[in-house]
Design brief:
binds zinc ion, Nucleotidyltransferase, domain 5, alpha/beta, 8 strands, about 35% helix
């Protein structure tokens, strides 16, 4: 895969290379196990580290048994893949395809590419998208300068309850869902959140949750941003000072552009119910875009495991446990 200009340090991975890396189900299982049990294999039921590999001849669906609680387990247990009987190789390929398509892969394409039903492909993708999810209070404050902006995504007016329609009146397009996002110019990190309202309390609360208290904040002139407890500068979209030196929100707006192109071109629509998952996934993938493909894939696996192995740790360690990169 050709590297994008200016990112020559990023190591891509071709389809041929990925197939060579995972010639067998066993090799894919080993890759997942090395990532999920980076600190050593342990029982997901009781945490015990005294475990035994089962006799392969017996073909037990769970390859390990705990010497403590005597229960069987696999690396999938306690992850988003827990109840999946799909081979690890299909998971590897799904994660690869998801990470290497800028706008994401549709369930229809995944269904054709790896030979599962479209429904299965859809569930796999939703689980993969869960990987970048984190709690609000888990955010590392961004040092800034940060750009904050809100946008509106799909949804049809007829699907909106009367109460919501009324609530949304006078605040942006009534038939759409608002998303607020922040981008740190220093680290290029993005975080975005689906919000029920774009009022002052919601938007400023989001900024307080994400930006360090001394961060410089750039927004447009929306009234909801006025009177913030930050060093705050606005950019006026309507006037000709569209891009006034540092006072612009182009960074976060280009993130919206990718999200919107994916919405239109790949997914046709995100249902509001799942919108946060898509938004989180796009932000997460944006945040690891300079990492090698294999490290990005490792981030996804780490995120599938209840955050025991975070992306940050993976990248800080330059990725993967020895043996995983063959
Ligand atoms: Zn146990």
């Amino acid at each position: 895969m050709a590297n994008a200009p200016g990112r020559s340090f990023r190591k891509g991975l071709t389809v041929i290379e990925i197939m060579d890396m995972f010639p067998t189900e066993e090799s894919a299982r080993k890759w997942f196990e090395d990532l999920i049990w980076a600190d050593g294999r342990h029982c997901p039921h009781c945490g015990c580290t005294e475990t035994t590999e089962c006799n392969k001849e017996k073909k037990h669906p769970m390859p390990y048994r705990c010497n403590g609680c005597k229960q069987y387990f696999s690396a999938k247990l306690g992850t988003v893949m827990e109840d999946s009987r799909l081979p690890y190789r299909k998971w590897v390929l799904a994660i690869y395809l998801h990470m290497t398509s800028l706008k994401g892969v549709s369930s229809m394409k995944l269904h054709r590419d790896i030979g599962v039903t479209q429904k299965t492909a859809w569930f796999m993708l939703q689980r993969i998208r869960e990987a970048f999810k984190r709690d609000d209070d888990d955010n590392d404050p961004m040092g800034g300068p940060v750009e904050v902006d809100e946008t509106y995504m799909g949804g049809k007016r007829k699907n909106m309850s009367n109460a919501r329609r009324k609530e949304a009146e006078g605040r942006g397009p009534v038939d759409m869902t608002a998303v607020v996002g922040v981008k740190d110019r220093e680290s290029n990190r993005v975080n975005a959140k689906v919000v029920q309202s774009t009022d002052k309390a919601t938007l400023q609360g989001f900024i307080i949750d994400n930006a360090a208290s001394d961060a410089k904040v750039y927004t447009d002139e929306a009234g909801a941003y006025s009177g913030m407890p930050f060093d705050h500068e606005t950019v006026c979209h309507s006037a000709c000072e569209y891009v006034r030196e540092m006072a612009h929100t182009n960074g976060i707006e280009s993130f919206w552009a990718v999200l919107k192109r994916a919405h239109k071109g790949v997914f046709h629509k995100f249902s509001v119910k799942h919108l946060q998952r898509y938004v989180t996934d796009f932000a997460g993938r944006h945040n690891v875009r300079d990492a090698d493909t294999l490290d990005q894939m490792g981030c996804i696996v780490g995120g599938m495991v209840g955050k025991r192995l975070t992306c940050k740790t993976l990248i800080a360690q330059n990725g993967l446990p020895s043996g995983a990169r063959k």
